[in-house]
Amino acid sequence: MDGLVTPGLKGLPSDSRPREKLLARGPGALSDGELLALLLRTGIAGKHVLQLAQELLDRFGGIGGLLHTGADALKAVKGLGPAKRAEVVAVLELARRALAQELQQKTLFESPQAVRDYLQLQLGARPHEVFAVLFLDSQNRLIALEELFRGTLTQASVYPREIVLRALHHHASAVLLAHNHPSGVAEPSRADVDLTRTLRSALALVDVRVLDHFIVTRDHAASMAELGLL
Questions:
Q1: pTM
Q2: Where are the beta strands (DSSP E) in the chain?
Q3: At what angle do helices 82-105 and 112-123 cross, to 10 degrees?
Q4: What is the pLDDT of residues 113-138, one digit of tens each?
Q5: Which of 35, 46, 111, 172 could connect to 135 by a Cys-Cys bridge, CB 3.0–4.6 Å?
Q6: Which residues on neighbouring strands pair with residue 221, listed in sequence order?
Q7: Sign of CA dihedral 86, 220, 129, 214
Q8: Mean pLDDT on 55-81
Q9: Given a cut of 50, is residue 2 above it in pLDDT?
Q10: Under a CB-based contact definition with an 8 Å cutoff, are residues 203 and 166 in contact?
Q11: CA–CA dist 191, 158 (Å, integer)
């Protein structure tokens, strides 16, 4: 429980306290574990906050893996109460919203890495396949991201008509397609290529361009356009 804690950051020598270190030397001087310890503030029974932070990083594959982890997965961590889970999930949501705001204010081609980061935060850790569409305005700025289909994705399970209707609803000039590979392999399959061509043809009928199709994993977002497959 969050109430049963060992000493938190105040129990450390002053030169080892993450907060003092951050204020004196800047956030870049802190390790991932120290930054996470600042967020968590206190440990749990029998475990100091820095130890708890490092164990969370080890369990979920580093800070990137932790930020891709949902509230349900965090429930499995013994002693990690709802307050601490909420803090971690809140940081993830803030990161998503910050990236979405950036993509709404700039053309996507001004910040291609932000597009990849946004898609990885949205889709990278999903245990099942999700097909999403980013609807763009005439300046290639983000209007909205919608998750339209789930499950095993094939031409039979992704409906072009639905994507066309949503594009018209948003008055989109272009779209970016994206779906995740829970296997962790960010390589387009033959089916992915065929599906992209089908959707490109359908959207062309209403003068909406398909700019790219990203295959997303926890660690990577592969661009079919960059691979010459679009």
A1: 0.69
A2: 130-136, 142-150, 174-180, 209-216, 221-223
A3: 150
A4: 888 888 888 888 787 889 999 999 99
A5: 172
A6: 216
A7: positive
A8: 78
A9: no
A10: no
A11: 12
Sheet of 130-136: strands edge to edge? Answer: 142-150, 130-136, 174-180, 209-216, 221-223
Q: Which of 219, 221, 209 lies closest to 176 in space, CA to CA?
A: 209
How, if at all, do strands 209-216 and 174-180 pair? Answer: parallel
Backbone φ/ψ region at 171: left (φ over 0), alpha (ψ -120 to 50), beta: left
- Lookup result for tokens 């204010």: 105
At which residue do the structure tokens 């130890």 appear? 51
Query: Tokens 């779209």 map to which residue?
Result: 175
Q: How far is CA 113 from CA 99, 101, 110, in A?
A: 10, 14, 9
The span from the CA of 129 to the CA of 140, in Å, is 26
Dist. CA 123–CA 207, nearest whole Å: 27
Q: What amino acid occupies position 132?
A: A
- What is the distance between the alpha carbons of residues 178 and 198, in angstroms, rounded to a whole number? 15
